Structure prediction request, 106 residues.
Amino acid sequence: MRDFTANALEVIRSIPPGKVMTYGQIAACAGSPRAARQIVRILHSMSAKYDLPWHRVINSKGEIGLIEPVGREMQIQLLEAEGVTVTPGGRVDLEACLYVSRPAVE
Prediction:
């Protein structure tokens, strides 16, 4: 596993219940600020294997990034179960819920 991927997994695992991080924020903390799309790939391919809290990751606008209805609804339900308010349009208040992690790589 590459360093970036291992760092990204560590950052994703660090997101506490009731908080969210953005794809770009995770990429920056993992050592590659321009690799937000790679975070999407990591979540897609590794969430089950590494038991990642994938539902706590949203886009930079504070929106649920999933388009597929079943996955989108599951993410909303998981976030709401942790106390995160999600608007009917699928948006989270970043001021209230954004988790700021220290960079995994310095």
Q: What stands out?
A: The chain has a mean pLDDT of 94. The CA atoms of residues 41 and 91 lie 22 Å apart. The chain has one domain: 3-97.
